[in-house]
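Cont'd.
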Amino acid sequence: MSFRGRLAIALVTLVLVAQAVSWLAVNQTLDENAWREANERLSAGRLVVEKQLQQRSQQLEQSARLLAADFGFRGAVATGDRATIGSMAVNHGARIGSDRFWILDLEGQVSFSMAGGDDELGRDFAKLLQDADANGATSRFTTIDGAPLQVVLVPVMAPQLSGWAVLGFTLDEALARQLRELTGLDVSIVPVGGSDVGSSASSSLPLTCFAALLDQGMPDPSRGIIRHSLDEHQFLTLRNDLAEVALLLHLDRDGVLENVYQLRAELAVIAALTLAGSLFIALLMTRTVTRPLQQLVAAAKRIGRGDYSQPVPVERDDEVGSLALTLEQMRSGIAERERTIAHQAFHDALTGLPNRSKAQQELRRHLQHASEAGHSLALLLVDLDRFKEINDSLGHEVGDQVLIQTAKRLGERFDEENQVARFGGDEFLLMLPRTRIRQAQQAADELVSMLAEPLAAADMQMLLDVSIGIAIYPEHGKDPAALLARADIALYDAKSQHRRWSCYEPGRDAGQRDKLTLANDLRGALGRNELLLHFQPKLDLHRGAVSHAEALLRWEHPTRGFISPDLFIPLAEQTGRIRELTRWVLVTAVRQIAQWQEGGHHVGAAVNLSALDLMDDGLPELVQQLLSQHQIDPPLLVLEVTESAVMRDADYGMAMLHRLRSLGVKLAIDDYGTGYSSLSYLKQLPVHEIKIDKSFVMNLTSDSDDAVIVRSTVELGHNMGLKVVAEGVENDAALELLRRFGCDYAQGYWISRPLPAAAMTQWLQEQQPKPEAVHA
Amino acid sequence: MVDGAGKPVAEAVVSLHPLDAPAPDRDTQLHNIEQQGLRFVPHVSVIGVGDQVNFPNQDPVRHHIYSFSKPRPLEIKLYSGLPASPLDFPSPGVVVLGCNIHDWMLGFILVLDTPWWSLTDGGGIAAQSAAPPGRYRVQVWHSRQPATAPPQTREVVLPLAADEVFTLQLAPPPDLDPPALGMGG
């Protein structure tokens, strides 16, 4: 049961008990009063009746005396004149209302009876005569022939006692009624001990009641007042015996109790009103007590459901109020924590931007919105180039700073409608509603230039490059997964094509699948001898002779033919097969050096190491082993690494370079000029050469800027004690310029395109007799 | 003469009635029974058969004297002073007198057919010397003896050899005093 219900029941029970007690008390008092009143009335009634009958006796006696004193009567009695006596009895009896009349002689024998008959003469009034007082008179209640009778005996003096006159007065209903008039009580007069009581008794009661009384029989006089029911009426009856006549006084109980009933009815009404009132008050009270509790329960349930928005009402300063306050504090606490948790769940802790999961939600929401409104939506997937290198070389704190500041910039520019999210480690996703391809490209340009602003992290000014993949709803896809995949592809394209941004081109998905097939095929390519090395000679401009040849990995796919290294080398890097490939290249290249030596060509080989190779702890041993196995002069082997490869894990990469350098092999920085290394950093690298990226060299003759770059790079390298190699030499003019700039080595199609090993060997032989032929 | 308790009884009338010879004739006499102070005075009168009685009313109120006694029923209706004529009493017996106006008034006239009678004195003794010797019936009567009881009689021979003793059952003396009326004189 509810607290309210229990409270209400307790209150109502309390009221009920109180009312019951007072009801019982009042009722008892009422009963006692009624009983006492009945007692008093009956007792008083008895006194009145007794007094009345006594008076009646006296009156009757007086009347009888007057009769007896009548001269004629006396004469008649004295002379025994029966005829006269008879006539006088009728006359005088009627005068005083007597019903029976006897004359007794001096012996007490009946000498005359009004009723006549011989048996009357034998009637015995001895008892009555005994009671006669000094004046010779007496009165008595008796029964004669079963009928209740009041008899009066008076002497007849003529002038001496000459006999007695006995007068009988019937105790009839008229008397009963008369007594009732006086007392207000019903009166029944019943002979005692008679056999046929019914015929001679009389009463003021209604006939039916009287009949019931006679049926029940006479109450025991010793019991005092009794209660009994007569014909469905309740009576209180007091029996009072007068000699041989029983006088019953009846009090109509309903009459007595009428007031009690009325009072009781009024009490009942009052009780009912009180009960109703107290019920109302109890309900009101429980409502007052429990309503705030119910409110609190409702509030607690809301909180339970996870709805923390509505404050808990605190309207009171009692216990309930303090409970409400506590609940409210709890609610706000939980709400706060939940906000935090929800934020943490959907936001990146570092940047505060929505995280990937939130971004996907947002993307769905944007798409829904765009689909409903018929708008377009542009997805820009922004990737920080070489972020891992920053992280590895400069530490995570710097990396974090970079991310935070990038996020901040992005957030400042695109902060509406959760447009910016951190999508991955160094990937950010921008969702630009109502943006078509052109606008997206403009936005990408804007982003690039915005993020290209130097960035201050850990006391360093840093330049950041980003790659951006763009996919547009609805042109490039309808669902989030497709759009994200295509933005990813576009990003990949941008990176692989060294462009700042790239838009998804329809059909690129196929290329992507292609890559996966290739990656699969690449796994077995070594075993199937599908891989081979081509060599591109590196001309020593000072000596005019080929000093090394760069070993370039080629893949002859059985069905697809020649696969570009630009395609499968990244695949190998991504799938982790690059170390295997590099080792194979090293083995093959060193063996080739040995073969060339056997053929009389003192030509070394250059092998490219990827970032992952620098992590290969066993690499120096392999190199050492290969060199000693083939008895190769270590400087004949050149290992080329890009700056970014070293920067991937600067400490480790540096250590690895030192270890390799200690083997005596030569080290070169490949693609120099495309990275962002500071010169001071470059200085620390234990390398022997730098290879200027071919993008500078290819336009060397047409682009004066590039020429400046190349020349200063050559000078710079020399100043730092490094040899400088130029790649991508495609014409004589370029070669001549490089020669003029003092560049140490040149490599390119002008000298020779990459050739298979056998063709290279042959090319070396052709070159040997007339080394100057390079100029031809 | 003694009562039931053996005490002497005064004013009992003892009369001698000769059995062997008739009682001697005698002259009729006139008696007076006055009503005085609402009483009969005397209370008891003894007269001979044939005597006459006057009932002079000495009271300022009227009387209505009567008797229902068989020897001489009488009624003198409301009168004052002396009634017109005296009444004669030709038969022996007890005549009880009453007044219909004053119920308490009670008087007795004993009518005897003999000249020899006497009243007992305070010692309850009655003596008779005038009667000649012979057989007599002695009759004793007292006003207070019960109405139902006839006078006692006994045969004696004169002169008496010894005293005769009679025992009488008597009622209490009647209250002959008038109620306290405002009676002047």
